[in-house]
Amino acid sequence: MNANSTRRVVVEPGGTGVVAHVGLHALGSFADRMGLGDVLSSAIPWRGNGVALHDRGKVLVQGALMLAGGGESCLDIEHLRIGDELFGSVPSDTTLARTFHEITAPTRARIALALAEVRREVWSRSTPAPRDPVLLDIDASLVEIHSENKEQAAPTYKGGYGFHPMFCFADATGETLSALLRPGNAGANTVADHLIVLDAALVQLPREIAAGHGVGDDPSLATRSVVVRADSAGCTKGFLGACRARNVGFFVSARSNAQVSAAIFDAIGIEEVWLGALGQDGEDKDGAAVAELTCLIDDETLPEGTRLIVRREPLHPGAQRSLFPSLDFRYWGFYTYQDGDPRDLDVTMRAHAHVEQHIARLKDSGLMRLPFTSFEANATWVMVVALAADLVRWFQLLCLDAQWREARPKALRWGIFHAPGRLVHRARQRVVRIIAGWPTTQVLLEAYRRLALIT
Known about the structure:
Blueprint: E1 18-19, H1 22-33, H2 36-43, H3 56-68, H4 78-81, H5 84-87, H6 93-102, H7 105-126, E2 134-140, E3 143-144, E4 154-155, E5 161-163, E6 166-170, E7 176-180, H8 191-204, H9 207-210, E8 226-230, H10 237-245, E9 249-253, H11 258-267, E10 275-278, E11 284-292, E12 307-314, E13 329-336, H12 342-350, H13 354-367, H14 375-399, H15 409-417, E14 421-426, E15 429-434, H16 441-453
Parallel strand pairs: 2-8, 8-9
Antiparallel strand pairs: 1-14, 2-6, 3-5, 4-5, 6-7, 9-13, 10-11, 11-12, 12-13, 14-15
């Protein structure tokens, strides 16, 4: 029996004709096809003398490729620099870091407008039918930082130390439509921050969808409904009123208060008001039930027409805090400004949990390692983290199929992005031959075929 896990080899330097990161080349080629580098370059002013050696739009795209490949600091860009046959002239880590420090808040705003153009093109090729509402999800997450030298890092409400960024995601695609870096002690239910990420997300929507949903817009201009979901941090008079002022519907988790508790108490024992809850697959969910208790509350802080939906399910070990003290059920509720069956609305609200997957994708793509002392530079880092995650999502939506369409970053890196190949020159062409036996060869070849069709 041979218990060895490796074969005996002799390792020497000087290998040639071998390339790594073939899948990252496919991702970068996709970015080029979509014109991402060009639109970013047009949004970033050059403040130096003469012509920049590295176009700043290209620098950000290659920085995004580095993050998509698992990089966690500017130094990791060096792994792309050794692959100049695939990636061309790649900036050094110092040039990449300098670029992050050059970009200011006004420049990030211009970059966001430029990205919206690319996003609209992707949506025109991949989004659901126009009859579906556009669902936006707002949530914040803590980023622990083990350094007191970073500007605006502060103690968090969980007793840690770092930052408390807030995001708005598109549910249909998983894109990060907006990201706001905040100090660690930033409030969870800050109305101003919720509105910043919401308004920035609305700007990212295609014009035909965003019309009628801006401040001061005529609601009759709206051709497609927009709905925002948030946890109890969004359950504030200011935020809900601002949503209605933008002709935006909402789902927000209800907070425990006297009116809600009284409504649940009144409904206990009246089984006809409780409807069997549905799972995400549309099938009945054993033991769970849903009831609309709107008529049992009178809260003047809620916009007129707001509905209260409450869900109950049997208590189980580890159940989260309930809206109402009970030994038999856990009660959870939400407010909504949407029409429809309470059971269907409950399914829609519970799908807000998708934000956990979206945030996990960001944390697996550089969000957990804010590398700079400067708060502004770290805000730019967060922007590029979101850009990297969106670029990967666009690539998945337009170039991949089956399980790879929803694959997580780790799976994409192992199976797609870091595929090795052999480089040969033939008829003045660079030809990459994916290593024989690589399990996702056909997936990569199909991705390149689809890339060729993007015009």
